[in-house]
Specification:
Elements lengths: L16 H5 L7 E3 L2 E3 L6 H5 L2 H5 L19 E3 L1 H7 L4 E5 L11 H14 L4 E7 L3 H12 L3 E7 L5 H11 L4 E4 L8 H13 L4 E3 L7 H19 L8 E6 L3 H12 L5 E6 L8 H17 L12 E4 L12 H14 L8 H12 L8 E5 L7 H5 L3 H4 L5 H7 L1
Parallel strand pairs: 4-12, 5-6, 5-8, 6-7, 9-10, 9-12, 10-11
Antiparallel strand pairs: 1-2, 3-4
Helix pairs in contact: 4-12, 5-6, 5-9, 6-7, 9-10, 9-11, 10-11, 12-13
Length: 404
């Protein structure tokens, strides 16, 4: 299993030195003339997670495979705060969550792959749009763990960002199947196709879209407890409001549950970036309370989540999934211009547009935290070395040719 160590100049905190010393070498790989260690999970690493620190019984209950460089930093957006006239604007840098690929998927995959490996699976399959960050992250880390990745893709509006993700994905050589959009394709038909595929592959572990399975949710329950520790350490005041992209709901559900377990007073606010049939309050509640019930079954007191525990904003979605919005473009320009941080048009730009709007309205004494879920790791080498005609199925070639 390969796990590359990356050092971030912008990180405020890093992996505990003791955890690094606990890494067990099973092989070495030479990347850019540097030798990197590979680890299997140790009891020390598991006990370093805030979730396991708070509830040690879960060390034996929840399979876990370390992938990330946690905790991720929190920092004040000084320049942008000055520009907007709101001086308590912070960011949680989950773009730096992993060495090979960052963003919100890494936290989920640590628990998802932990379960898959514990059950002895050799293959994993997931689904998402052709520019899916989840599919890309899953394939990258699956290969690092010696698992074979499969993915079922549906189309989305083509942009250079989408094509770059496809090129990066091709570097992992996954087995890809292009299907219709699940919102347009009758759900029962899509489900029947997927279940038929899985029945023919009994050794394949199924990962829900966006990594929003029960196992994945625990990654963001842990994230909320991580934030609690950073608040206690004085790295930021307790936020009055926390904004996060809401797609397949797992990140949002985990943060809501984790924040309530941590007794944070923060209001968790999801910004819908996927069609309402997927992203809605009922689905968020179902995921959060399924995780809560599981924790209670394991002997960990976990609260019931209700509609009072979060807000879900629908007015930043725009015309359709994957289509940029004017407000999102403005938010992207502001964050890049003042903080040199990049957003993508499908998820994070729409989410940050809600933050910008709120910062212009809210009392300056209130603290806003934006949870940044986009990958921040440089993929240029993967993209530059990719050849879609060689590494992607023929039906994918038209996405590049039509764009040209």
């Amino acid at each position: 299993m390969l796990l590359t160590t990356v050092y971030y100049a912008t990180k405020l905190r890093t992996i505990a030195p003791q955890a690094s010393r606990d890494y067990k070498l099973s092989m070495r790989v030479h990347i850019r003339h540097t030798s990197y260690a590979i680890q299997s999970p140790s009891m020390q690493q598991k006990s370093n997670l805030p979730l396991f620190q708070a509830h040690p019984i879960l060390v034996q209950k929840l399979p876990y495979q370390p992938l990330g460089t946690l905790p991720t930093p929190v920092q004040k957006l000084e320049a942008l705060s000055t520009h907007l006239g709101h001086h308590h604007l912070y960011i949680k840098r989950d773009d730096l969550s992993g060495p090979l690929y960052g963003g919100n998927k890494v936290r989920k995959l640590e628990f998802i792959f932990g379960e898959a490996l514990a059950k002895g699976f050799k293959e994993v399959v997931t689904l998402g749009a052709i520019g899916s960050h989840h599919v890309l992250a899953t394939s990258i880390y699956a290969r690092e763990l010696g698992l074979t990745p499969y993915a079922h893709h549906f189309p989305q509006p083509i942009s250079q960002h989408v094509l770059n993700n496809l090129l990066a994905l091709s570097s992992t050589h996954p087995s890809l199947t292009l299907v219709g959009h699940p919102v347009e394709l009758p759900f029962h038909q899509f489900k029947k196709q997927l279940m038929g595929w899985l029945q023919a592959r009994q050794k394949t572990y199924y990962i829900k879209g966006g990594g929003s399975s029960l196992a994945g949710i625990f990654g963001y329950v842990n994230a909320a407890l991580e934030l609690q520790q950073q608040i206690e350490e004085g790295l930021l005041p307790c936020p009055d409001e926390i904004y996060v992209a809401a797609g397949t709901n797992g990140t949002l559900a985990g943060l809501i549950l984790g924040a309530k377990m941590a007794k944070l007073s923060s209001k968790i606010i999801g910004v819908r970036v996927v069609d309402r049939v997927v992203t809605n309050s009922a689905n968020v509640l179902a995921l959060a309370n399924a995780a809560s019930a599981t924790l209670n079954n394991y002997g960990v007191p976990a609260p019931l989540i209700t509609l009072k525990d979060f807000d879900l904003l629908h007015n930043h979605f725009g015309k359709a999934y994957g289509q940029p919005t004017h407000e999102g473009d403005e938010a992207s320009a502001l964050l890049m211009g003042h903080e040199s941080l990049k957003l993508d048009p499908t998820y994070t730009a729409k989410t940050f547009s809600a933050v910008v709007k709120r910062a212009r309205q809210i009392d300056d004494a209130k603290t806003i935290l934006y949870w940044h879920t986009l990958n921040g790791i440089d993929l240029s080498e993967r993209i530059q070395n990719a050849d879609y005609t060689r590494d992607l199925p023929e039906e994918y070639h038209t996405f590049f040719e039509d764009r040209a």
